[in-house]
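Appendix B. Raw example, untouched.
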Amino acid sequence: MIKLLKHSILLLSIVYFQSAIAQFTIPETPEFQTSVYDYIGLLSASEKNALEQKLIKYSDTTSTQIVVATISSTKGENILYLGAQWAHKWAIGQEKED
């Protein structure tokens, strides 16, 4: 029983350590903010521009702000948690709305 407990603690320690070093670092808020951040070069300049224009128009007509960021990996982070943390750090959206 003690041997099993030691192995369980070791396993949990390894999993915790790996998740601690694999966390995604949210970039600093850019000075010039827009609606599309293509960190991996997925979009052409014209695709990025067209998407930005659609998102700006959508925001203007609905007062809902959407920001798109392309990244290569979440580095093990839950995408929903990462998105919420990113939105909070960059102050995306309206202050009085959640």
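End of appendix B.
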